[in-house]
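Worked Example 4.2. Consider the chain below.
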Amino acid sequence: MRSLWNTMGFSELTAYFEGNGRYQGHGGGSYTNGDANDELNAHLSERFRGSARRNDGDRGPTTSHASKILVNPDVATYVQAQKAIYEKAEPGDWLAMPEIPPSSEVCLPEGTSIVLPRNRIDQPWSKPERYLKAHYKLLREDAVAPLREAVDRFRKDPQRMDDNETRIYEQVRVVGMTFTFQGIASRVRFSTARSGRRIQWSSSKRLTSGTLVALTPKNDNFNTKCMLAVVAARPLRNLESDNAPEVDLLFGDPDDLEVDSQNSYIMIEATQGYYEAYRHTLRALQKQSQEA
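Applying the procedure from the previous section yields the following structure tokens:
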């Protein structure tokens, strides 16, 4: 993330939003907010409306601005309350755990054991806080365990091919950035050579939006570097283009946000579990702790 701000100053970001949404990076990749069909949550009514776009041949300045976005006040209040929980929680406490898990939850040293609370089903809980905390940890483990096991299998056999439990993508490179309401997403291009077949993306469940994935630099094999991200969008036309398929990723740690198109990574996806199905329930349990 820091490297992105070093590349794009405030004035350039302002010009980006007022112009056609394109910025040419120093590494050869372009940073773009994409067309309407490429945007995250493009079907929602809260998107920008009436924003002027310059023609490709028009390099002159523009004074047009995006129209006002209507925000549901109830949603804004909910988001602000969730942010306050994170800020007040002690470091390491379950209330301070982020939505996208850090690498320490997935890429564990060999031999590390996971300690989980016991779920009481035959007697009442002494305090509501203990009930919420226990179920949060159990649910979060259920959400991240499939990816952790997939990473462990890859560590033991880095040359393995896709199987029924693990999907492996090679030559993962950042080719652009997408500015969204959720944050700055990285558009990555990758190879599906390890699948051993042609992927029918229109009917495939691979890299569905909301899927949790793990990335590691080429030849590192998750030994020293592990980055976690959530698939933000998978425009079908980007997956079925003449070039290699592309998806947008939202990284959990801003420092993991990569902008150098020369760096190559390996990306791992677990076939079991779907993180987006757990994500909102985990947030609700954290918020419920303040209302119990």
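The radius of gyration is 21 Å. The beta strands are 22-24, 30-32, 166-180, 183-191, 212-217, 227-233, 246-251, 265-270. Compare this with Example 4.1 before moving on.
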